[in-house]
From TrEMBL, chain A:
<dbReference type="InterPro" id="IPR043428">
    <property type="entry name" value="LivM-like"/>
</dbReference>
<dbReference type="GO" id="GO:0015658">
    <property type="term" value="F:branched-chain amino acid transmembrane transporter activity"/>
</dbReference>
<feature type="transmembrane region" description="Helical">
    <location>
        <begin position="213"/>
        <end position="234"/>
    </location>
</feature>
<dbReference type="Pfam" id="PF02653">
    <property type="entry name" value="BPD_transp_2"/>
</dbReference>
<protein>
    <submittedName>
        <fullName>Branched-chain amino acid ABC transporter permease</fullName>
    </submittedName>
</protein>
<feature type="transmembrane region" description="Helical">
    <location>
        <begin position="291"/>
        <end position="312"/>
    </location>
</feature>
<feature type="transmembrane region" description="Helical">
    <location>
        <begin position="159"/>
        <end position="180"/>
    </location>
</feature>
<keyword id="KW-0812">Transmembrane</keyword>
<keyword id="KW-0472">Membrane</keyword>
Automatic annotation (TrEMBL), chain B:
<dbReference type="GO" id="GO:0005886">
    <property type="term" value="C:plasma membrane"/>
</dbReference>
<dbReference type="Pfam" id="PF12399">
    <property type="entry name" value="BCA_ABC_TP_C"/>
</dbReference>
<dbReference type="InterPro" id="IPR032823">
    <property type="entry name" value="BCA_ABC_TP_C"/>
</dbReference>
<keyword id="KW-0547">Nucleotide-binding</keyword>
<dbReference type="InterPro" id="IPR003593">
    <property type="entry name" value="AAA+_ATPase"/>
</dbReference>
<protein>
    <submittedName>
        <fullName>ABC transporter ATP-binding protein</fullName>
    </submittedName>
</protein>
<dbReference type="Pfam" id="PF00005">
    <property type="entry name" value="ABC_tran"/>
</dbReference>
<dbReference type="InterPro" id="IPR027417">
    <property type="entry name" value="P-loop_NTPase"/>
</dbReference>
<keyword id="KW-0813">Transport</keyword>
């Protein structure tokens, strides 16, 4: 029972919200436009580093730091998009993987350690006065202390972080909904189905794909900021496993739906938390004695759920089964 | 008759390796006419369509549409000028509904720009008008009952119809149809011909590729014959289709078979394919 409650509490975590937001951006690329972005982690890294460096190292105001992160994400999208979006879809896939790895190596390298902290990453330490999330903490309207909601207890900081991040998720999800119901969104979905058909109808396909890459990338960068707000910035967090996890989230919830990425992120993290709880229980009970590293088990449960889902609901939890039936035609 | 060409092409060349797929010295399409483009498989008809509409690059030549030189222009810009083509292998948008396929074909929809997309007031009116027009066209093409279905659920023949209807949503001046009748069952093919005639009567120009010479004869005002990349002859259907050179051009590619046999076999195959898809 405790495991269930703790797991459900994970829904309120800024990390869950960050994954939901990142998956919304990826959904715009992959689910709605059909862009194979296998380097979404790169956009998150750019947001996280752009923001944290601006505040903690360059002492810029938070609003400016946000603009820096957004501008860098736009630049990154253009850098990737301009050479590849007129080519076949697989070129974008290759370039996004490569570009996100280049970002990770760059921030990890000692050459730029003055800015990025190299392998150490960027600290977020209030006591040392270099916290990049201080401005958010200062804006907390809740009194210090604990807040009880049903069976759960939150610190004021946790509650504020949860509200702030989930409001951003809600606003961005609403924005994407508004975009996708518009004629602009219909063109995007048309491009996903057959870009030559859209070209023959006078649509500038490359322009639309570039717009989609930029918007989804900026959403990814914002998610990157969210991801590091409660913790520190570490280069290892932005490896291709992050991209893989975001695809898992998207496929769990249902690609090309508005709320699929949100539901997917929630289910993903609640499951991870639950499997952590079960593993700890198992360790204490001595049932897992044989396993050298039980913490590796946490992804096993998620993996199993994903396999079950692919067998029984391949379109994801919110997807439309009918659409999938056409894929093999 | 004074000449008012909507499309003029000069010395258009496109080669693949050693093969000259297209080598057209001169081609004009008169405004307000139905022009049939015929020729054996591999004659270069589709390649010519691709080059003229900007989907493929030319190795040489110039061509103008409606008085504008469009040589080398990107495909979407050529389409915007009013020269809209369909594809020999249909390109319907499978996971969109039939109605959505039509709506995305409309031109001048302000909501297609990012700036205006978020303000429904700026595009709702145009969208409503487009829906009306789309339903009208779908009814005309016997797809009215399918408006809400995913396009992927349509049969091969219905896809051809949808693609043509979608092109018409774009209000083209010149509509270029690459084998619009292929795979369409004979009854529908008949009504397709009526649609094509109606297009001309609306003032549009039609250029279409077709193998069935009977169909060609019954609707077209002019016939252009291609063989091995070049225009062999052109003129009124009655004269052209009786021209021994045309028969030669057709028979040239199949010198051991009779033309009638080829057509009969193709029609049989297409009808069989159609039936299989509809029952499947
Ligand atoms: N992308 C391509 N690459 C190589 N050869 C091609 C290509 N497209 C067409 N061809 C060749 O060009 C010639 C004309 O083909 P096509 O235009 O499809 O003829 P049609 O439409 O009249 O049947 C054929 O010999 C074909 O093999
Ligand atoms: Mg052809």
């Amino acid at each position: 029972m405790d495991i269930l409650l703790t797991s459900l509490q994970q829904i309120m975590s800024p990390v869950t919200a960050a994954y939901a937001l990142a998956a919304i951006g990826l959904n715009l690329h992959f689910g709605f436009t059909g862009l194979l972005n296998f380097g979404h982690a790169g956009f998150l890294a750019i947001g996280a580093y752009g923001f944290a460096i601006s505040v903690a190292v360059l002492d810029l105001p938070v609003v400016v730091a946000l603009l820096v992160a957004v501008a860098l994400a736009v630049l990154f999208a253009l850098l990737i998009g301009i050479p590849t979006l007129r080519l076949r879809a697989d070129y974008l896939a290759i370039v996004t993987i490569a570009a996100s790895e280049i970002i990770r190596f760059t921030v990890n390298s000692s050459v730029l350690a003055g800015l990025t902290g190299g392998a150490q990453g960027i600290n977020n330490n209030e006591a040392m006065g270099n916290s990049y999330s201080q401005a958010f903490k200062d804006a907390n309207p809740f009194d210090a202390g604990r807040v009880e909601i049903g069976p759960w207890v939150f610190t004021a900081t946790q509650l504020w972080a949860a509200i702030l991040t989930w409001v951003v998720v809600a606003v961005v999800a609403a924005l994407v909904w508004a975009l996708m119901r518009s004629p602009w969104g219909l063109v995007l979905k048309g491009i996903r189905e057959d870009e030559h058909a859209l070209t023959s109808l006078g649509k500038n396909v490359r322009l639309y794909k570039t717009q989609s890459l930029i918007i989804g990338g900026v959403i990814g960068a914002l998610a990157g900021i969210m991801l590091v707000l409660p913790s520190t910035v570490a280069p290892g967090d932005f490896n291709s496993r992050l991209t893989f996890n975001l695809f898992t989230v998207l496929l769990l919830g249902g690609a090309a739906t508005i709320l699929g990425p949100v539901l997917g992120a929630i289910v993903f993290w609640v499951l991870l938390q639950a499997s952590d709880g079960l593993i700890q229980l198992g360790e204490r009970g001595g049932w897992l004695g044989g396993f050298a590293d039980a913490s590796q088990l946490r992804f096993t449960l998620v993996g199993i759920v994903l396999v079950v889902l692919i067998v029984f609901r391949p379109q994801g939890m919110l997807g439309d089964r009918k659409e999938l039936a056409f894929d093999d035609k | 008759m004074t000449s008012d060409p909507v499309l003029v092409a000069e010395r258009v060349v496109r080669g693949f390796g050693g093969v000259r797929a297209v080598d057209v010295e001169h081609l004009t399409v008169e405004r307000g006419t139905i022009t049939a483009l015929i020729g054996p498989n591999g004659a270069g008809k589709t390649t010519l369509f691709n080059v003229l509409t900007g989907f493929d690059r030319a190795d040489g030549g110039r061509w103008s549409f409606d008085g504008t030189d469009v040589t080398g222009l990107p495909a979407h810009r050529i389409a915007r000028l009013g020269m809209v083509r369909t594809f020999q292998l249909t390109r319907v948008l499978g996971r969109l509904t039939v109605l959505e396929n039509m709506l995305v074909g409309a031109r001048h929809q302000p909501g297609e720009t990012l700036r205006r997309a978020l303000v429904p007031a700026l595009w709702k009116g145009k969208r409503a008008a487009d829906v009306d027009r789309a339903r009208e066209l779908l009814d005309r093409f016997a797809l009215g009952a399918k408006a809400g279905d995913h396009a992927a659920s349509l049969s091969g023949g219905q896809r051809k119809l949808l693609e043509m209807a979608r092109a018409l949503m774009n209000e083209p001046t010149l509509v270029m149809l690459d084998e619009p009748m292929a795979g369409v069952n004979p009854a529908l093919a008949r009504s397709l011909l009526d649609h094509i005639t109606a297009l001309r009567d609306e003032g549009r120009t039609v250029l279409f590729v077709e193998h069935d010479l009977h169909l060609v004869k019954s609707v077209s005002d002019r016939v252009v014959v291609m063989a091995q990349g070049a225009v062999v002859t052109e003129g009124a259907p009655d004269t052209v289709l009786r021209d021994p050179a045309v028969v030669d051009a057709y028979l040239g590619a199949h010198h051991d078979t009779d033309l009638r046999e080829i057509i009969a076999r193709e029609t049989a195959r297409e009808t069989a394919g159609e039936t299989a898809e509809e029952t499947g």
